[in-house]
């Protein structure tokens, strides 16, 4: 346990697991709260856009969470996810041959897969990616007021687009939410997080895994073999997960690793495992365990296996890339290669 920048950092695996398992003592209310307080000018823009993130999934510790989670989980059943494998492989094959595996492959593939799985058609993927990457920086970045003002219109536009699609019943997900009696405000809040987390974190996982795999020539040669890609993905999740932290609030005074932590304290939970420990919490734990874990694992394994099979001579070039480095998310912004 360490106290840094006004937050308690929890690193012990057993402590992190215990915190995630107890949403009554350790509230998820701050899971989507902006890391950098929103400046008044940006806040006014959000108010004009009628932006809100009511408790739905990641930030919901109330009784409504279970029903909303069941509804969304129906789109991520094992059979639906498994049925997506041929489509994932086809998308990877279409994207071979580029010089930057992030820009040319990992950037849009997870978004396309997610939209298809959720039954959302006619989505402009470049616009969605701009909205979602900007939202990640807005809410999880240590950014200036000026940068907030540069990003806030995209945040508001994304939210308004979701509200419009809900009212138009445009897509299977929005129809399911409306039929279940979920309000427009709650649906937009739920989908705002789902459409970001459901593909941005997978782009990050693919980018991290591809770069790390290409750093080991012997591993790259083995990746097409049965089970190797799946095992490697698990190792990346354990020691190099792109979702590096998550947050909670203490509802009362608690003791973690022998340290007394007051009520109302913000906790930053470290999700990565250790080199000599097979356990990890890359997808969380308990009632808020990531609904897209199976899909992310599948996309990563299929991508690695397919690229290694068709591009055995691929190798890394160039200097150390720029990294996405937010409170909860970390990944290389480029993976430059030659053949």
Task: Provide the fold topology.
Blueprint: E1 2-4, E2 7-10, H1 13-21, E3 26-27, H2 40-48, H3 64-73, H4 78-83, H5 85-94, H6 101-106, H7 109-117, H8 125-140, H9 145-167, H10 172-179, H11 184-214, H12 217-222, H13 228-240, E4 245-250, E5 254-256, E6 259-261, E7 266-270, H14 293-310, E8 315-316, E9 323-325, E10 330-332, E11 337-338
Parallel strand pairs: 2-7
Antiparallel strand pairs: 1-2, 3-4, 4-7, 5-6, 8-11, 9-10
Helix pairs in contact: 2-9, 5-14, 7-11, 8-9, 8-11, 9-11, 11-13, 11-14, 13-14
Protein name: Cytochrome P450
Family: Belongs to the cytochrome P450 family.
GO molecular function, one term: oxidoreductase activity, acting on paired donors, with incorporation or reduction of molecular oxygen
Provide a compact summary of the structure.
It comes from Lentzea alba. This protein has 339 residues and is α+β, with helices and mostly antiparallel strands.
Describe the structure.
GO terms for molecular function: heme binding; iron ion binding; monooxygenase activity; oxidoreductase activity, acting on paired donors, with incorporation or reduction of molecular oxygen. Belongs to the cytochrome P450 family. It comes from Lentzea alba. Helices cover 51% and strands 11% of the residues. It is an alpha+beta fold and 339 residues long. It has a single domain, classed as Cytochrome P450 (Cytochrome p450), CATH 1.10.630. The strands form four sheets. It has a five-stranded mixed sheet, covered by helices on one side. Helix 8 packs across helix 9, helix 9 crosses helix 11 and helix 11 packs across helix 13. The model has no long low-confidence stretch (mean pLDDT 97).
